């Protein structure tokens, strides 16, 4: 991918099983753009990029992943209820939808490694 096609910001998350995580994210609506170990590059609605990074064998992560962090994604072509349905079909925990005082409707989806994904649409 040419550098002018890349978005200016992205997030990397360490995952225990990259293929399982990629299938989960793809089921929600993310598109896989590249895969070259140790990374799987995903894109949400051409707005956000996520890199799933294989956990190095010598690294052991214990406890809740991403404690205190929400990875936020604006809803576009797929509506909030559809993302929630897709997540539940994958066995994920889904919180919401909740209408926030800042005029958004939001859900929080927990991925297979425990990262919390915050999907947001205007209320």
TrEMBL record:
Signal peptide: none annotated. GO terms for molecular function: lyase activity. This is Lactoylglutathione lyase. Gene3D superfamilies: 2,3-Dihydroxybiphenyl 1,2-Dioxygenase, domain 1 (3.10.180.10). Keywords: Lyase. InterPro entries: Glyas_Bleomycin-R_OHBP_Dase (IPR029068), Glyas_Fos-R_dOase_dom (IPR004360), VOC_core (IPR037523). It holds the Pfam family Glyoxalase. The keyword DNA repair does not apply. Residues 6-122 form the VOC domain.
């Amino acid at each position: 991918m040419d550098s002018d096609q890349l978005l200016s910001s992205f997030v990397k998350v360490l995952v225990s099983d990259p293929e399982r995580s990629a299938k989960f994210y793809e089921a929600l609506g993310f598109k896989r753009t590249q895969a070259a170990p140790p990374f799987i590059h995903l894109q949400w609605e051409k707005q956000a990029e996520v890199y799933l990074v294989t956990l190095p064998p010598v690294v052991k992560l214990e406890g809740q992943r991403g404690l205190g962090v929400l990875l936020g994604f604006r809803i576009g072509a797929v509506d909030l209820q559809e993302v929630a349905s897709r997540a539940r079909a994958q066995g994920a925990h889904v919180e919401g939808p909740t209408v926030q005082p800042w005029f958004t409707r939001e859900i929080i989806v927990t991925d297979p490694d425990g990262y919390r994904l915050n999907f947001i649409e205007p209320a």
